[in-house]
Amino acid sequence: MNKMLKLRGQFKQKKKSPNFGPNRMKERTVLTSSKIENIIENLKQCEIYWKDINVISGSLISVEYVDIVPKSRRISYLFPKEKIVGAKFTNSENKRHIITYYINRNSIYDSLKKIEIINNYIKTNFNGTVTNDLLDFIESTADFESIGVNKTNFIGLIVDMSNVERIYVQESDELSEERKIVSLFETEKDTKELLNSIGINIPSERIRNTTLLLDPKEIELLIKKVPYLIAMEVEDLSKIPPEVIYKEKQLVTEKINKPNGEPVVGVIDTPFNTGVYFSEWVDSYNYVEGIVNSDDLNHGTGVCSIIVDGPRLNPFIDDGCGHFRVRHFGISPSGKYSSFTIMTQIEEIVKDNPDIKVWNFSLGSDKEIEQNFISPEGSILDEIQFKYDVIFVVAGTNIPKGITKTNYKIGSPADSINSLVVNPVDINGKIASYSREGGVLSFYIKPDVCYFGGDFNMPMNVCYAPEKEKLTSGTSYAAPWITRKLAYLIHILNFTKEEAKAILIDSCEKWNEKYNETEKRKYGHGIVPTNIKDIVNTPNDEIKFVISGVSQKYDTYNYQLPIPMSEGKYPFAAKATMCYFPKCDRNQGVDYTNTEFELKIGRLKNKKKDQTYSIDTINDDLQDEEGELTTEEKARRYFRKWDNTKCIKEKYSSRSRDKKSYENPLWGISITTKNRLNSADGENIKFGIVVTLKELHEVNRIGDFIQMCSFNQWFVEEVDIDNKLDLYNESEIEIDFEDN
Prior knowledge:
Distance between the termini: 51 Å
Structural class: alpha+beta
Strand content: 25-35%
Radius of gyration: 28 Å
Oligomer: single chain
Strand order of the largest sheet: 17-18-16-20-21-22-23
Number of helices: 17
Largest sheet: 7 strands, parallel
């Protein structure tokens, strides 16, 4: 077996070159006067709607686009200086963007005047139709001063209207008989001040930015007074789906040794039973008042038993990771819990425990996630992981009792984009009978990975009470095994959270294994290997290395990656997995992640005008190549645009052939950064990349690779588990210094 390698080298940074190409309609688009007149009527209706409303100073306007639009095709002239406050998809099979804007009211009036002038000009001079060719002709020949609309606005409004299906005001009329978490569209008004102005007075503890915890009567008043302000609403109380228990029995596990400096993992769950045999390994803190039922302790205690002593309880899936200490926070009873309360507690817990890098969260809702927005709990986990150097492992949730449909969606917070979300499989690698399915926002791959969670053919042993264990199954018990592996990678092997997440996901991405769309919604990227050595070691005909860096400008690149050659060709197939933790914005709905990293890796072709190389990337991604057109839908589906996990690979089979070398014999890596809202959102975001080279003729070339790397300014370190473990143990030894 070859050892995984860590490569450390210097990435260069480059700003984006200015691109002032002509503003034009989508290829083969024809804009007609009848469509313009529909938009005029839409705007007039919006103007009437907002005429006498004075709760807020601006207007909330929703624009339904003709398709899923990239940032470059969003409107920019219809409502100048608009602020995007929400985004969702239509429910139709051919999804389209619906983006909500908060605009100055004068914008509606000003745009109406200009659009009516443009429409009259087109009807009078061009028979009421406009194409891109005609737009070129108008731009070069028209007297815009006499038309009454300047050239920039004329062209811009034409292009904007070509991308718009309709414009309207979105309202909510969904009453409730229970408390709900309600999110308002962001305006210039302070949330508490706005609520007071319509007669809703709630304590500050029930307000988190523009997200509120409201009673049914408060929701009814909100709908009556300001239905246009409601962006999202979900029920506050969730019920944790029960686990399946096959048998309860007397504990047979031997007593455990005392802890001796092992890494500490954070667990947020139901409270902990301090009477269990491994209680010395767990520092527990209880946030739940009035526990009267011992069942409230079972779930959190069982999760901790896997993290502390899972391999001894279940020797058939020994992962080789040893024991871990746990700092445990009981924040929920075993039945229903308040999502809003949990949201406010989690960040305080993480902030007060900065030494903990890996957190296990095996609580989850019985309800399905929403189609067009992230859950409040998922959102707070994403925010925490962006702000603090931590990673959450989240259970994909069990199917509730009584549910018979097989495509039941995962529950919150398993829709957290930055977290590592785990689904369960049985002992044979088949998806467990109680598992639910992703994805998230119709696009993001969730769950991320799968692991053994127990099932009818082989349950799992967990300790849940003093001298008691149970044979059980549940997604809650699949997640802690992944938590153990992450903690080992980060604390023992010294990988960053970005690298560790990429390593685990990459370990699932087999060369020739490909899940169909239905399977991917349950398996994610696949099943993580059991033993940690099978994750960080690789066959002799493979070279696996980890590279990390920080994005500071548009292009973060290195063109000095040496790949061994044979007879002037590269005898390898390649794959790469990249992970990063972007800033997210729940108010943006389906456009949830603020930053996109595009990964390219491959042979270097000729230099471009800006003296950077063109990379012949292994997945044929041509999104940023000059003259190439890729639709937003295709970019998301095939190249995972806006997804914070990228897995790209070449096809590998017995028919794979060596690749020729271009003039420059080196390979390159490029990470290009794009931002939806603020250009600063993508600055200083870390990334981790795992690259695997498969030798096509089963030759071990790792020695050549290491030598070539040292010649090309890369520092190479072999990841040796035994050496790393010895170093960790030595570093944890406490030394007493006696006074002389």
